């Protein structure tokens, strides 16, 4: 299919800089997801790739060829939008083949391409229907089929599942993953939903305030977030954060004083901290362990029973934290609980929100793509108030 290189792309609207020097490579046949909160610049970046917006500065290259001045129709890309944008008076077949018709493709060749796309998307029984007779998921598949028939070098998806209900979103995530496998295509997908990013991506690009915070596989970002923002954004329920103080540091770890008087040694590079530093301890809800002898304690305020697991919302002096426990736990609201954690599963963040390099390695995470100290070299590019 195709590779994409983004080199120092900046985008300004009047005096507002929404993209602040983006550098990124998308490899052939990768499924890359841009994820971040509203206003982070992810959709603007996708529109620049598509040619619907122009970059203020910087370069875009497809297979090594600069495309900044190439029009959207000539870039060899196909985009699927959040809205289905189907013609209500046309059948599914006509909607899917309309762009080919405009391009002057013959009737039989057009039909062959539409039938092949319909087979891939399981739309063959629906070709004679009009959009009003389709469900939301079926309409989105038609919009995807309209992109497939163009045989693009890169597929672009701009929050395509946002209009679907929860059950349909799960189904469409599965279908998009299957589609990527069957087409063996390069795909770039924009979403604010980190669950979509984690379940579909080969590579996730986390953006915040027009800056790329971190790039890596889903499990790299889960196990080795480079800063507090990424740590809190990736993972559901989100990571818990507790204020701690460094007591002793070494190359093999940092011993911290925990809220409530306990201590723990966290497996991070202690050369990046000093005794007495105020730090934040990050622990994912699924890595907190209920233990009558645990060094942490609090009062249960809310219990959410989800069948196979239960979420406990526990109030401590520094706020509410979340514990993911077995579905059959018998705790009750207002009961006090003690809990602890495995030090190899914990994270530490400094006063700037940067992660101290973890010394733990996990089988699915590989290596960190960008060291947290290296990221701090670009701290001047961060928007005011970002982590």
From TrEMBL:
Entry superkingdom: Bacteria
Keywords for the protein's UniProt record, in alphabetical order: ATP-binding, Cell inner membrane, Cell membrane, Membrane, Nucleotide-binding, Sugar transport, Transport
Keyword flag ATP-binding: yes
Matching Gene3D superfamilies: 2.40.50.100, Nucleic acid-binding proteins (2.40.50.140), P-loop containing nucleotide triphosphate hydrolases (3.40.50.300)
Compositionally biased residues, Basic and acidic residues: 370-387
Keyword check for Ribonucleoprotein: no
Residue ranges of the region described as Disordered: 367-387
Name the UniProt record assigns to this protein: Sn-glycerol-3-phosphate ABC transporter ATP-binding protein UgpC
Taxonomic source organism: Franzmannia qiaohouensis
Name of the encoding gene: ugpC
């Amino acid at each position: 299919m195709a590779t994409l290189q983004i080199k120092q792309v900046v985008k300004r609207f009047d005096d507002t800089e929404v993209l602040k020097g983006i550098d990124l490579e998308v490899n052939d046949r990768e499924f890359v997801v841009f994820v971040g909160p509203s206003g982070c610049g992810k959709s603007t970046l996708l529109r620049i790739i598509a040619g619907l917006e122009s970059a203020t500065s910087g370069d875009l290259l497809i297979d090594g060829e600069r495309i900044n001045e190439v029009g959207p129709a000539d870039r060899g890309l196909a985009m699927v939008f959040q809205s289905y944008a189907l013609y209500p008076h046309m059948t599914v077949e006509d909607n899917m083949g309309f762009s080919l018709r405009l391009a002057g493709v013959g009737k039989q060749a057009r039909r062959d391409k539409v039938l092949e796309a319909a087979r891939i998307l399981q739309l063959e029984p629906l070709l004679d229907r009009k959009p009003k007779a389709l469900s939301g998921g079926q309409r989105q598949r038609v919009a995807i089929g309209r992109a497939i028939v163009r045989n693009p070098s890169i597929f672009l998806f701009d929050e395509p599942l946002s209009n679907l209900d929860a059950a349909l979103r799960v189904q469409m995530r599965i279908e998009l993953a299957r589609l990527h496998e069957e087409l063996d295509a390069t795909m770039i997908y924009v979403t604010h939903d980190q669950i979509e990013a984690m379940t579909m991506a080969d590579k996730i690009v986390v953006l915040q305030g027009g800056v790329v915070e971190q790039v890596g596989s889903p499990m790299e970002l889960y196990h080795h977030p480079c800063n507090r923002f990424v740590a809190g954004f990736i993972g559901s329920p989100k990571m818990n954060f507790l204020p701690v103080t460094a007591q002793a540091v070494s190359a093999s770890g940092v011993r911290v004083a925990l809220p409530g008087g306990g201590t723990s040694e966290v497996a991070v590079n202690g050369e990046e901290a000093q005794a007495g530093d105020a730090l934040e301890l990050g622990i994912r809800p699924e890595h907190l362990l209920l233990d009558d002898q645990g060094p942490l304690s609090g009062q249960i305020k809310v219990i959410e029973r989800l069948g196979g697991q239960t979420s406990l919302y526990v109030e401590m002096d520094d706020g509410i934290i979340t514990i993911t426990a077995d579905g059959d736990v018998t705790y009750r609201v207002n009961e006090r609980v003690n809990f602890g954690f495995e030090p190899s599963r914990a994270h530490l963040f400094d006063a700037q929100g940067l992660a101290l390099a973890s010394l733990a390695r996990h089988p699915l995470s590989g290596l960190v793509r960008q060291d947290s100290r290296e990221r701090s070299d670009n701290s001047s590019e961060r928007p005011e108030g970002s982590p």
